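ok so for the tutorial part 2 we go from a plain amino acid sequence to predicted C-alpha cells. step 1 is just haveing the sequence, like this:
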Amino acid sequence: MILGIYGAGGLGKGICNLARRRPDEWDELVFIDDMATQDEVYGLRVLSFATFQDAFGPADAKIAIAQGEPADKRTLAERVRAAGYRLATIVHPDADISPDCQIGEGVLVLSGCYVSAESVIGDDVCLMPHVGIGHNVRVGNHCQISIGCAIGGYATIGQGVYLGLSASVRDRTSVGDGSIVSQGACVLKDVPAGVVVMGNPARAIAKNENGRVWNEAPKGGDARE
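step 2 — the prediction. this is what the C-alpha cells look like for a chain of 225 residues:
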C-alpha cells in the first residue's frame, strides 16, 4: 500500500516520520504537493495530485491530509474522496487510546496523546503531540488539535475547529463549528460557532468571518478552488 502525504510542509514531515515508524505497513511514501518547487523532500518523491492519480489508483494507495488549517483539511479530504481514495489513519505507537473509543477515517495521532474511554474522534482530525482527551468527548470532522491541548470529559468539539497550543476545554462544555480557540485559552463555558476566543477564562474577541485560521496561501498543498 502506498501512502500519499498531502502536504510537504512541517506537518507533512512530521507525518512522514510517524509513517516511517511502521515500515511494514507502507510499500512507499510520497508527498503530494500541488505547488511543489522541489522534486524531492525528506528523501521522498513530490507529486502533484494529478500525477499521483496517474501513478497510483485508489486500490493501491491511501492519503493522509497533512494540513493544519481546518478549511484546507476539509477541501483536500473532499477532493481525495471524490477521486475514490481513502484517508489513512495513522497512530503513533506510544499513544494511549482506550479500546472503546471510535476513531474516524484519516485521523492522525502523534506522540504522547491520550484518549479516554468512549470518546469519538471524527474523520480527518489531527491530534498533535501530548493532547489529552477525557472520557465521552466528541470531536467533529476536520479539526486540528494543537500540541498540549486538554479536553475534559463529555466536552463537544464541533467540525472544523482549531485549538491552539496548550488550549484547554472544560468538561461538559462545547466549542461550535468553525471556531478558533487561541493559544493557551481556557474554555470554561460554551463557545458558539464561528468565533475566535482567547484568554483565561476564554472570551470571544472576533467572528471567524473568512472561516480560516490563517489568511496566507496554504503551504504544502493547494487547497484553493
